[in-house]
Amino acid sequence: INVKALFHMTNAVVPVMREQGGGVMINIGSTAGIRPRPGLTWYNSTKGAVNLLSRSMAVELAPDKIRVNCVAPVMGATGLLESFMGLPDTPENRARFIATVPLGRLAEPRDVASACLYLASDEAEFLTGVVLEVDGGRTI
After folding, report:
1. What is the pLDDT of residue 80?
2. C-alpha dist (Å) from residue 107 to 7, 76, 111, 118
3. DSSP string across the chain
4. What percent of the chain is predicted at pLDDT more than 90?
5. Could you count the other beta carbons within 10 Å of the beta carbon of residue 91?
6. Is-above-0.85 flag for pTM?
7. Tens digit of pLDDT for each residue in 44-93?
8. What residues act catalytically?
9. What pLDDT is stored for residue 86 in this prediction?
10. How far apart are CA 127 and CA 132, in angstroms?
11. What is the rounded distance in angstroms from the CA atom of residue 105 to the CA atom of residue 76?
């Protein structure tokens, strides 16, 4: 899903963006593609592919004035948290993971949304190929 969705989206959207003279794509990668966690090999691999695909597409589509960036969040408190932790979602297991995040919390939806808004904005008009880690410092 993580990689094939980008393939289909790109095939559908790039011709439209070329016709209109440019555009912005923002893909959702993950810190798992930068700093993998045990027990999540296939997820880590597909998110690593999203991170790299975004950079590769940025180089390929730049002549068409299409900017491609990626947001790579750390785990957030979603329905998939237990799957991403690879452990039962208990207060102790959450605390153990949060202890690995220098800013001391999980990602919130607003953190990811704010990063996406910035990358889509005119203020980021000279950014392409960025994998923006929204991770409270976890991948440092």
Report:
1. 79
2. 27, 4, 6, 17
3. -TTHHHHHHHHHHHHHHHHHT-EEEEEE--GGGTS--TT-HHHHHHHHHHHHHHHHHHHHHGGGTEEEEEEEEPPBSSTTHHHHHTS---HHHHHHHHTTSTT-S-B-HHHHHHHHHHHHSGGGTT--S-EEEESTTTT-
4. 79
5. 7
6. yes
7. 999 999 999 999 999 999 999 999 999 999 988 887 788 777 788 888 98
8. 43
9. 76
10. 11
11. 9
Name which of 55, 24, 56 is nearest 122 in CA terms. 24
Distance CA 55, CA 76 (A): 24
Do the beta carbons of residue 82 and residue 117 sit within 8 Å?
no
CATH topology of domain 4-134: Rossmann fold (3.40.50)
